[in-house]
Design a protein that fits this description.
This protein is α/β, with parallel strands linked by helices. It contains nine helices and six strands, in the order αβββαααβαβαβααα. Strands 4-3-2-1-5-6 form a six-stranded mixed beta sheet, with helices on both faces. The protein starts with a helix and ends in a 16-residue tail after the last helix.
């Protein structure tokens, strides 16, 4: 029985008023390579990261796709407000990066550059700051299976259990947008892209101030997803405590 199914068997918790909405931009779609710390000493049951010089000394090309931009907003459902609470370009030693990493989609299609990442806030500092921000809070993203399952729940972030999840904003947007699946015979609607859901559900209103163009930067996208959450909540289309769809068997 997974954590969410266990929660279903408990008394339903009150809907939280303040929710953190997080977004990441990454070097690829496959995700981080390791779920658990690959440096873990199995005998002494402790990480060897510090013995290797700390997180910032790691050879990052060995660990799969990386988070290079992260943003977090705080939503108040009762007030209908969105507040920026954290944003950072995540800094890595990019000298050992592969050409594929340097030519990632994020660097070819946005204003984020490899040089900005090279000179960004050191990963170890961002990791600590993000963990401090999210600890004990209610949190979600627009696509939890990407931002959380593929990245933040895996090494080197490993934040699983630090906060409480609420419903994926994308799951509710799917049910509102009702985009037909391209697969013949499949009745399930497909997930809408963030900019499409924002434009469609908010009916042209632009509280996030993107002027019709998603810039695919973490804090901006977190703002967009936050306002989308508020709109659907006010319309009775988003229930933070509804975890249906979180796993394929739900």
């Amino acid at each position: 029985m997974n954590d969410f199914q266990s929660a279903f068997n408990m008394k339903r918790m009150d809907v939280p008023d303040t929710i953190l909405v997080l977004d990441t931009e990454t070097t690829g779609l496959e995700g981080a390579r390791y779920i658990d710390d690959p440096t873990m000493d199995r005998f002494f049951k402790c990480s060897r990261v510090e013995q290797m010089g700390g997180y910032d000394a790691l050879d990052w090309k060995l660990y799969g796709d990386l988070v290079v931009d992260i943003g977090i907003c705080e939503v108040s459902l009762s007030k209908g407000t969105v507040k920026d609470v954290y944003s950072a370009i995540v800094g890595y030693d990019t000298d050992s990066w592969t050409q594929e990493m340097e030519e990632s989609w994020i660097f070819e299609n946005t204003d984020l550059t490899v040089d900005q990442v090279r000179n960004g806030v050191p990963f170890s500092q961002v990791r600590k700051e993000v963990r401090d921000v999210i600890k004990g809070r209610w949190l979600t993203t627009y696509n939890v299976q990407y931002d959380l399952d593929k990245f933040l729940y895996r090494f080197p972030w490993n934040v699983k259990g630090l906060f409480n999840e609420v419903r994926d904003i994308m799951f509710s947007a799917k049910d509102v947008c009702k985009l037909k699946s391209p697969l013949y015979g499949v009745k399930e609607y497909r997930y809408p892209k963030l900019d499409y859901a924002y434009k469609t559900i908010l009916k042209g209103e632009d509280p996030a101030g993107i002027n019709g163009v998603q810039d695919h930067r973490a804090l901006s996208d977190a703002r967009v997803a936050s306002h989308l959450m508020i709109k659907m909540f006010n319309d009775g289309q988003y229930d933070p405590m509804d975890f249906s769809g979180r796993y394929a068997r739900d």
